Amino acid sequence: MNDQNFYDWYQTPIRRMYNCDCSLPFVSRNFISFENVTKDWAQNSLDYLYRTFVCSLCENEIDDPGENIFILNRLANSDPSNLDGYGYWEAYQFHLTEKGMALVKECNLDLNSQEICPLFKAKLTAMFEEHDVGFDKKAFVPIQF
To answer: Which of 68, 89, 141, 144 has the fewest CB neighbours in a 10 Å radius?
Structure first.
């Protein structure tokens, strides 16, 4: 994954989730408005969420971790480009786990920086590979709309 895509799809969302519970549209640097959402955006968002769930880096603010696959399937079947589907995408809120926060601190990730953090990218990439959810894989929970 090139640096810009990593920054947009991984570093920015993790930065934003550091201090608060966030919906996927809120954390995504690539989200403009629900009318302009593409299937690619939705699939990339679900892949981000799947990878961070598998690696125990983020969690839903309310539901038990056992509900993660239910949440992913609900989102995969809810078109965020219309108001009804978008409601689900906004309703689910996520935050970093202690493990996710520890990774941010370990890498000394500057939460205000617009620059890629090479150490953070290297550690996150290695973690994804270790959990068999590397960047060479995608559509873990395929979009169904």
So the answer is: 144
Q: How far apart, in Å, are the Cα atoms of 97 and each of 17, 56, 102?
A: 10, 7, 8
Tokens coding 140: 């873990």
Q: What is the DSSP letter of 37?
A: -
Tokens matching residue 67: 């509900």
For residue range 11-48, list pLDDT tens digits in order. Answer: 999 999 998 999 988 888 666 677 778 899 999 999 99
Contact 65, 59 (CB under 8 A): yes
* CB neighbours of residue 99 within 10 Å: 14
Which residues lie closer than 8 Å to 119 by C-beta, 6 or more apart? 107, 108
